[in-house]
Records
---
Amino acid sequence: MNCTMIGAASDLGVSRDGTAQGPEVLREHCFPDIPFEMIYAPETIKSRSAQDLRKNEAEINILDKELYEAFLKVKKDGDFTILVGGDHTCAIPSALSSCKACGKTGVLWIDAHTDFNTFRTTETGNIHGLPLACISGYECEELRTFHTGDTVDPANVCVVGARSIDREEKENLKKAGVRVISTDEIHERGIEAVMEEAFAVCLAGTGKVHVSFDLDVIDPSEAPGVTVPEVCGISTEEALRINSIVAKRISDVCSYDLVELNPRNDIDRKTEQTACALLKQILEAVRAK
Ligand SMILES: [Mn+2]
């Protein structure tokens, strides 16, 4: 199967600069010979104010609409799409375009954060903390005005590797009924068992899974090149094992994201190299599909 990579050069959804350079670094260093379309955030003065609880909302919507149309165009040709972020808000058009193109879809969200805040509960106003709520149809209508069709049923959403959840965000997750598997649970039960369950949740009554991989699920001692590091994460080796299960089950997967590489915070390019290895696992599997 053919695969098209779409880069989202944006850090509009985070509070600090750097994430916008992630996809360009990966295209240049890892994938110079692969179809790789780059979509840039609108040039504008970015809001970084702590008081602004809807930071860059209008600009994010402009970018996400452009991404949504680009994903749909590639999917119409029958190609598999990989989103290379950019901050995690770009997963909104990636996942919702799959709902439109692939039918009923579950979402596997591999991340240290659950990204299930809403404009009502966010404490920072950084919109990259809201995308999973938006994709799951839980408030956040303002962030999916470009999408026509269903959102993802929260019963088909599973977060793997979470360890940093805000108090009110936890309430949102509980109300929506989202299954959250913590880093501790991965270590208690083992990677195979939790991934088996995660796929079962995402595929219950759906045809496909959208997989979204945030590099900050990995411990910052091994993957420092992110914007919001969280200690006590999984190792790089564990991340590659989790991702190899995704690769093995590629026939259940309709699209994939790799997000939040921040080259400015990276040390000796080690997070970049991990990102590259994760993407190559998926690319190889898609090509063999
Ligand atoms: Mn995250």
---
Amino acid sequence: MKSRAFSLTLGICLTTGVIGARSQARAGEPDTVGPDVITADLYQLHHWGANTPGTIHAYSVGTISCNVGDTPLSWHNYDNQRPVIGQNMFRLRDGRCEQIGQSWLKWGFLALNENFCGTCIIPPGGGSQLGVNCSDPYSATLNGSQGGLGPKSVVNPFTGDLPANHATPGSGTITGRLQVHTTDLDPNQNAGALYFVEGHYVSPDDAAAGNLYNNASYRQVWITGGYGITFTNPQGGSSSTVRNKPAIEVWKAVDPTVGLKLLDVPGDGRLYVACKATAGGLGGWHYELAIQNLNCDRAVGSITVLLPSGATASNLGFHDVDYHSGEPYSGTDWPGTITAAGPHWETSAYATDPNANALRWGTIYNFRFDSSAAPTFVTEAELTLFKPGSPTSVLATLDQGVWLLGDLNCDGLVDFDDINPFVEVVSDPAGWQAAHPNCPLLNGDTNGDGMVDFDDINNFVALLSG
Ligand SMILES: [Ca+2]
Ligand SMILES: [Ca+2]
Ligand SMILES: [Ca+2]
Ligand SMILES: [Ca+2]
């Protein structure tokens, strides 16, 4: 279903992958040990309107959760043993995957124990638990009802620690809700953009059982006239929820040149690091990095992309998403500088400002630059963790997607199967590209002079022989 919706939009054929297969194949059987909440469906949308100048619109997303574990999940309305739910919006445009909105969190208060994911086993705690195989819906308006919203900043996404009682954001059309700048939605300023919403449950006993990595799901949306929002594709059909995957995964799903790696911080949660290299940046190549912090509480305070010696770096850029409605965090963009190691961005240190604009859970931040270094040589980034602890930093491997020197059939290997495509790319590049539409031509530029020709033969043979 998802692939069909994307195909209608993009006119390309996508792999169907494992999406949805997990729950379907195992319907009626618990997937995991312990309580395990997932965002089973994003099923409803609501547009609340805009602020008075019309610069920010507010939305909510209706969510259905399921417990796919083998133990009831706590859903108390009187203490901290309950889930909270985040809602986010993202945009793919011009080779970028950016977050354009986030909400305060919905505090769960009562599990209805319905049968969306299979035959619900009514739990002993009734509505104060989500039973095995049971589902619970929160409508879009309920997920935007301000009395039930609390800040993101008081929740530890890795442990699920959260306060029993929470502040509320106050009243008004957009307060506390999923806020998106009108400029990020205006069709005249966003030609070709694709939009996605994400829901993310955080729960203490799901986290304690180690089942916290499947809690986010995303779904494509379309912006309608008057800045409404819909799951219905104006060209026909509708999107479906992509279960158990954070929104950053859609970037790779629609663009096969994107590389994506996940990175588990020791003693803390998970980061996703996505990278897209494009030939033709100011310095020879453009690099576009998107990092999604799924549930890493210590957050990321700086990034350095490690470049080979002699490589240039220029044209540094950054993109974040606004906090709002009284969340304590700074929104100051990370300044970019060029260090001996490579392009570097950092927010203020924790010791200086614990509320600095770190890359915290439930957000994607972007880092972009141009460089003379080809993708094969841009393979690592150092991420410094924002909050004190050990380790102080982690090394992220950059998956460069289909960029691999000498891989002329884009199967991820450089071997004898690449000989015929190599002959073709140097003799008939147009014919080769037609036969390998998602394979970068410059995989054939083995001597790094920016051209693919017979001068690349010697290095190609050397790559073949290891
Ligand atoms: Ca889970
Ligand atoms: Ca900012
Ligand atoms: Ca190959
Ligand atoms: Ca060359």
---
Amino acid sequence: MSGQLEVRGLRVVFDGFQAITDLDFTVQPGELRFLIGPNGAGKTTLIDVVTGRTKPASGSVRFNGTELVGRREHAIVRLGVGRTFQTSVVFEELSVLENLDLAASFRRGLPALLRARRGVSGVVAAVLDTTGLNALADRPAGVLSHGQRQWLEIGMLLVQRPSLLLLDEPVAGMSRGERERTGHLLQAVAKDHTVVVIEHDMEFLRRFASQVTVLHEGRLLCEGTVGEVQADPRVQEVYLGRSSSKKEPVV
Ligand SMILES: Nc1ncnc2c1ncn2[C@@H]1O[C@H](COP(=O)(O)OP(=O)(O)OP(=O)(O)O)[C@@H](O)[C@H]1O
Ligand SMILES: [Mg+2]
């Protein structure tokens, strides 16, 4: 079956080290897909390849049928692919609203960036609602809690109207309450977007994931529902065999 995102035969090599090997990965439109795997499994590298940040040694990445390999990062953003990073990219001294406005104008282009802003645009207002950041719109981003900052980053993607969002560990370091709100936010976003989320927290997966893909040492280990993945002996071995890992075991 063809998907919105189709990765085929992907191989990524860094200085002779094979970070991703023969990877096939398909995501259907409107899916909320979780991507898990131990440290160094290749999760971030996969997102880096999809978004044009890293060039693969071989393989294909198709988005709505369009080949992404060989395209530049900004061209891939314009095609409707948005991503967050493991580290924060908000402007601390700007307000929540200004950060959203600025992100929205990246997609609209320089004229919009230079034009004096008249009121809050429809898309920004809608995203303030979706992310629950309305009451904080005029606060500097630098004073936000860790969770609020992550929601702002997701909001900064949403205002660019991507159809596919790739989120790299959005709930890492969050409190239980913040994780819960983020889960609901992701489910709301997935109603009209395709979402791929890298996450390690198994309690979070049990609560919010349906389909899960497990990577290990650059290869696809298994795919299925949370229950299927947890019951897979290969997954148990990969996680339980690494008792020194800072990540929570899968079982
Ligand atoms: N730019 C790079 N140069 C060299 N090696 C790299 C580079 N980026 C990633 N790697 C290596 O590729 C492998 C996969 O890294 P990647 O960051 O994709 O893992 P990950 O699954 O996201 O792990 P984590 O859970 O720690 O974020 C690791 O061994 C990493 O050290
Ligand atoms: Mg990573």
---
Amino acid sequence: MLELRDVHSGYGETRVLHGISIDVHAGEVVAVLGRNGVGKTTTLKTVMGLLPCLEGEILLDGRRLDGARPYDIARSGVAYVPETRDIFPSLTVLENLELSLPLGEKRGGGWTLARVFEIFPRLEQRRANGGMQLSGGEQQMLAIARALLLNPSLLVLDEPTEGLAPIVIGEIHSKLAELKRDGLTILLVEQNFGFATSLADRCYVLGKSVVQWSGTSDAILADKDMQHRWLGV
Ligand SMILES: Nc1ncnc2c1ncn2[C@@H]1O[C@H](COP(=O)(O)OP(=O)(O)OP(=O)(O)O)[C@@H](O)[C@H]1O
Ligand SMILES: [Mg+2]
């Protein structure tokens, strides 16, 4: 579904990615792992058109995505939940969700307000609360729910567990596992090794601006040497 072919990217003069290739097949959960500052967020921002793809190609279902504007990438079915979650603090939970409805309804698919409230009952209880009044876990759930309402074919998540308590991480894990069982395709960046490997079918490990390792989650769990070398696990 998504193909990164020899992608180079960075910030101004600073190149961060020096030719990375990643495939995500329909129905898969793929995790991108690596130490702090290795370029995981840069990879996702490049997919979303928020940073330029300086060399290489990005394809969605065989069509070029690189060079497209972020809103066109969203329209073509890629929904992004950034590290910063980007909840609108002055809007209520319901208003944050409603922002997705015009595009989500235009794209069509099974995601409705009723269905996100079924998966995230806490958001329904909090529907009239302001974005600012939510806990970190609730904000993460709202950011995921808002992305789902776009009826995406690919959900892109940047560190959904960051800053959350273990019990909340468990909750997010079970929600994502449910989405995976439903067949949603997910590209996930995570520092939490256990969380990532228990959800993902396959993993890519970034190091020194390139992909150092890729394989199944079972293979990464068995390879202690690689974990130590590139992840510091
Ligand atoms: N706006 C920016 N301008 C210049 N350099 C940046 C900018 N944002 C990130 N970088 C640099 O790019 C490199 C990769 O950053 P990136 O945020 O992609 O890493 P990451 O793997 O997501 O790290 P983390 O695990 O901390 O989230 C880092 O060296 C970082 O300092
Ligand atoms: Mg990051």
